[in-house]
Amino acid sequence: MPKTSHSKKTAPVTIIQDTREQMPLDFSPFEGVTVEVSTVWPGDYTIKGWEKSIAFERKSVSDLIGTMKGGYVGKDSIRRYESRFDLELEEFERHYDRAFVIIEPDRPEVIRQCGGEPCDAGAQIASGWYRSMIPPDTVFAFIRALTVEYGCHVYLAASREDAAHEIVEVARKYISSRRHVIHRGKIAASEQAKEEPDPW
Predict the structure, then answer these.
(1) Cα–Cα distances in Å, from 16 out to 38, 77, 152, 156, 197?
(2) How many CA atoms lie within 13 A of 183 on its CB side?
(3) How far apart are CA 95 and CA 192, in angstroms?
(4) SS (H, E, C) 108-150
(5) Cβ partners under 8 Å of residue 14, min gap 6
(6) Four-way CATH pick for 13-192: 3.40.50.10130, 3.40.50.720, 3.40.1740.10, 3.40.50.300
(7) 3-state secondary structure at position 38
(8) How many CB atoms lie within 10 A of CB 62?
(9) Where do the domains of the chain lie?
(10) Rg of the chain in Å (alpha carbons)
């Protein structure tokens, strides 16, 4: 007899989106994913229930170049010589279990204005299809520094849809891994309690 296939139910995930996102990603195509809008700091997105453990910073290639040129200075920053992005990176490094920088390609019309054709973020940077004289090698060196100096996971997305997909996949894997850790901890605590003699 043929085997009966049983579809695995998709675990629900709630993505929290920062109120300042001007062009938010679309998570509607993903089953079991809901979005709540609230203040997120640091980053642009996080996972409900794990807000102080994991965060996602989303940037277009143009945003990234702007950061390298000294943009995104936080007006409410105590240390005004540092950019907002600098402060976010420091916060990621000091307090977060996982931090992701998702870099998406610019809109097709922006890439065409720079002499290129629509492509993924990595190809756009490698081809120099952005409004800056900063060489591609320097941009990639900056991206590597995000990992080496701050421990951020960097993802060069193929599109906005791919960026949203990466956030959802990482969120699901993270939630699953943390629940397993918690479950193992409860089992270990239970076993230890069984082994300890009753003081009474």
Answers:
(1) 6, 23, 19, 21, 46
(2) 6
(3) 30
(4) HHHHHHCCCCCCCHHHHHHHCCCCCCCCHHHHHHHHHHHHHHH
(5) 33, 34, 35, 36, 47, 48, 49
(6) 3.40.50.10130
(7) strand
(8) 19
(9) 13-192
(10) 21
Contact between 151 and 99 (Cβ < 8 Å): yes
- Quote the tokens at residue 168: 């959802």
Sheet with 45-47, side-by-side order of all strands: 33-38, 13-18, 45-47, 54-60, 98-104, 153-156
> Which tokens sit at 147?
């990992």
Q: Which long-range contacts (CB under 8 A, 24 or more apart) does 67-76 make?
A: 68/132, 68/134, 68/138, 68/139, 68/142, 69/132, 69/134
pLDDT in tens, the chain (200 residues): 444 444 456 779 999 999 999 999 999 999 999 999 999 999 999 999 999 999 999 999 999 999 887 644 433 444 444 678 888 988 998 899 999 999 999 999 999 999 999 999 999 999 999 999 999 999 999 999 999 989 999 999 999 999 999 999 999 999 999 876 543 444 444 454 455 555 44
Tokens of 103: 């870099």
Cβ neighbours of residue 148 under 8 Å, at least 6 residues apart?
Answer: none
For 50, the 3-state DSSP assignment is coil
